[in-house]
Structures are given as structure tokens and as C-alpha cells.
Amino acid sequence: MRLDKLLANMGYGSRKDVKALMKKKLVTVNDAIAKDGSLHVEPEIDIVKVNENTVTYKKYIYLMMNKPQGVISATKDTRDRTVIDLLADEIKHFNPFPVGRLDKDTEGLLLITNDGELAHQLVSPNKNVGKTYFAKIQGKVTEEDVVEFRNGVILEDGYQAKPAELTILSSDTISEIEVIITEGKYHQVKRMFESVNKTVIYLQRLSMGSLKLDHSLALGDYRELNDVELQYCLSLK
Fold first, then answer.
1. Which CATH architecture has domain 62-125+211-235?
2. What family does the entry list (predicted)?
3. Please, are residues 187 and 166 in contact by the beta-carbon 8 Å criterion?
4. Which DSSP string corresponds to 183-209?
């Protein structure tokens, strides 16, 4: 990889900015001052430093976010704040994107990456990756609803949802449930409950497969996946 491209990719500015760093003799490769941005380097082998700080090359980033309400799962929007707007500038230059979508008013686990192949595998219905949600429901959720979900409810447009595992945590005028689905249609959980004449009033995603929400993350916070979480995600590729 060209040295100027490597440094630009790692957040050191445009190639023009990188050229200025070199002019100030702030860039070294294997302890030799680098003067030419077209110099080819091996990111995994060569030791590149800027102002004595070692540059650690990453091709992909994998972040877990506890998505807050009021923020949309998109990279750009002209009206609303996006989950990408919540990221630090040194992460944005990787051009990350959210994996799948959480509705604007839904909270919880969101994976953000720039690994397109992984994103495809996680959201592909063929992979049957279960997504677990906690929800508060207006209305009494019953064992009949559990059976309907297990059999695949019919949505308002006639589509039959894939079988889902509904667990009742409490049943009252406001019920609390967990539900596991393996697909991600638009407003899916909300529409599934509408099909049994009930309304979702709070929704939080808890997990995607073995990737579970870190409850120590405040709403809007994020962190890189740990080794176990990353290995699970990469095993899906």
C-alpha cells in the first residue's frame, strides 16, 4: 500500500496533509525519515510512525453500540442525527455503517462496521441468526399469541413472518416479553404484535446470535468488540 494512502486511511488527513507531515520530517518507516508518499509499505510488517507515534493499521473496525432512541440507523440523513454522528472523528474515516436497522425509537444492540461481507451474513435470512428483543406491550400477551408467533404470524400486507420464539415475562395491561426473530422486515416486531391486536410501546434489542448487548454501555456509547465477540462474528463469514 502507498504510504500516503495508509496514513490517509488511518485518519491523518488528506494526501496533501500527509505530504505536509513528510515535509516536516514527522513520518518515518522503519526509523528512516519518509520523504515520498508513493513509497510502498507492508502495513503488517513495516513500522510506520508519525511524530514518534506508531501507526497501527486496521482494515476493518467492529463496534458495539447501545443505540439510543431518536437516532436513526443510517450513515447520513438531512433531518435526523444518525448513529454515525455519535462516533468519534478518528472512527468515521473508516466509513463505517450500521449492520441492519433499528427503528428510530428502538434502543439497544447495534453492530457498526465497514466489513460488508460480515454485515451481509449477519442480516441474511438464510443464516437464521436470531435477534432477541425485549419489549413492553400495550395489552395482555397470552399463550395464544405465543402459539401464533411460533406458527408465523400474518402481517398486514399478507406476508407470513418466519416462526418466532415469544416468551412472556409478565402479562397485564402492560406486558413485558422477549421475542427472538430470524429476519428483519421493516418495523417487524411492531407489525407482528399489531397482527395480534397489540401495540409495542418500548423496544430494545438484546442480542444478535451470540453477540449480546453490553449493559455497561450507556445509551449512545460504543466500544470495539472483544476477541470472543469478534471471533463469533468472523465465524459467520
1. 2-Layer Sandwich (3.30)
2. Belongs to the pseudouridine synthase RsuA family.
3. no
4. ---TTHHHHHHHTTT-EEEEEEEEEET
Q: Which of 31, 36, 103, 157 is catalytic?
A: 103
Q: Residue 202 is placed in which grid cell? A: 418500548
89 is catalytic: no
Grid coordinates given for 234: 468472523
Q: Judge: domain 3-54, CATH 3.30.450.20.
A: no
Q: Per-residue confidence of the chain (237 residues) as pLDDT tens digits?
A: 899 989 988 888 888 999 999 999 999 999 999 999 999 999 889 999 999 999 988 889 999 999 999 999 999 999 999 999 999 988 888 899 999 889 999 999 999 999 999 888 888 877 888 999 999 999 999 999 999 999 999 999 999 999 999 999 999 999 999 999 998 888 999 999 999 999 999 999 999 999 999 999 999 999 999 999 999 998 887
Q: Which DSSP string do the residues of 116-130 spell out, in sequence order?
A: HHHHHHHH-GGGT--
- The amino acid at residue 57 is Y
Of 3.40.50.1240, 1.10.10.10, 3.30.70.1560, 3.40.1280.10, the CATH number of 130-208 is: 3.30.70.1560
Q: Which residue ranges make up each domain of the chain?
A: 3-54, 62-125+211-235, 130-208
User: Which residues make Cβ contacts (< 8 Å) with residue 231, sequence separation at least 6?
Assistant: none
Listed in sequence order, the residues at least 6 apart from 107 whose beta carbon sits closer than 8 Å to its beta carbon are 66, 67, 68, 69, 203, 204, 205, 219
Q: Return the amino acid letter for 133.
A: Y
Give the CA radius of gyration of the chain. 22
Contact 127, 121 (CB under 8 A): yes
